[in-house]
Every structure is written in C-alpha cells, then in structure tokens.
What does this fold into?
Amino acid sequence: MTEQENNTKDFKFYSQKAIGIATFIGGPLAAGYLIRENYLSLGKPDEGNKSLIIGIIATVLLFTGIFMIPESIMEKVPSQIIPIIYTGIIYLIVNKIHGTILDEHKENGNEFYSGWKAAGVGVVSLIILLIGIFAYVFLSPEGEEFEKYNTEIAKFTKNETESLVFYDHINTETNDLLIQELDNEIIPKWNENIKIINELNSIENLPSELLEQNVVLLKYSELRLKAFKLFKKAINDDTENYAQELEQVHNEIDEQLNKLN
It folds into this structure.
C-alpha cells in the first residue's frame, strides 16, 4: 500500500487477538470496552458507547442465563466451555465490524495496544463481575437489601469504568482538556464512589464477607481519588515531581485489587 492509503497510521487499536484474550478473562464487558476504544480511535464515539452498553447487557444476560441453569447440569459442563464459546462469538463480531481495518492497520506496520494492556482490562472486568456475583450470591435472600446493594454497586462499577479511560487520554489530550475531565468527570465519580461504599455499609444485616469487601473497596476508591488528584497537580504544575508518589499510589491500588481477587 502507498503512504497515502495508510489512513490509520496515527491511530492505535486493540487487535482481535488482544480483544479475544481480554474477553476470555473478563467476559463480554471487557469486549464491549475494548471495542468502544477502537471506535473512539476511529472518531465514532456513538458507536463506541453502544458497544459498551451492549457489552454490559450481554454480560447481564449471560450470567442470568448461567444462574438459571440447574446446578446438576452446570457441574457436567467443563469450566472453560462457556468462556470459549462467548470469546469465539466476540472474535467473529470484531472480525465483522473491524476486521478489515485491523488487518490493514497490521499490514501497514502500524501500532497496536499491547496484549498485556488488554489483559489488564480483562482483569478489571473480571473483578467487576466477581463483585456482582458475590453480591448476588450473598444478598439474594435479603430482598430489598439485595436490590439496593446491586443498584449501588452498578453505579460504582459504571463510575469506575468511565473514569479509567483517563489513562488512555493522558497522551492524546491537551492539558486543559485533561484538567477539565478531572474536575468535571473523574474526581466527582470517585467522590461519589466513596459515598456509595459508605452508604452500603449502612445496610442492615449485610453479610460479614461484604462488609470486609467494602473495606477494601473504600480504600481502593480513596487511592483512586488520590491518584487522580495527583495527576491534576502534576498537570497544573507541568512537572514530573509527583511521578514517584503516583507510582507508590498505583502500587497500593494494585494491592487492593489483589485483595478482591
């Protein structure tokens, strides 16, 4: 191909393989997020948002269906069969909507996000799913308490997912836009998440396992808020002086995420 035909040379995508890996780890939610990122790279935010919503809906339908299958049947199904099936479906979908673009991007020697980054998205998605499943298993007999917990956790995970896109914007947006995003979207979301966890702790008869999980989620939220405030300081001051402190905070965030696994 000629230089002129290399229309995506300045773009960066997640490959089909990377999306497949993330999907196997974190389900359709991870796929929806990564497909959204590819759409955003192409300047199609509406399609991207639809992809994320479809990923969320597909995840809910998938696990609702799994929980409806009798345990006696599920015990006979190999544990990897279901992930293999939905990963294969997602792979075919990605091939249909972006296959040509991704193939041309690769043929032109253009850059892709690393498979490790995609796997990280899969891990975050898995954590979100585990929180949801954990809440379902332990709170389903509690009626209103279960519904309230699930509703608030859904808000928490939505805030988390939407805020983490900031890391993709660091090297692509201007400092003014980054500050605006932090002030108007990111920092308020984590203030809200801290409030959500504190409210969840006030639910009566909450299982001790969830109370312990809330302790970790609260610490995790406080660390996320601290990290984004440090990003704001670093951008405002146009300095690298906060790099070491940011690294320490992110190490502490990883520790909290490991506790949720």
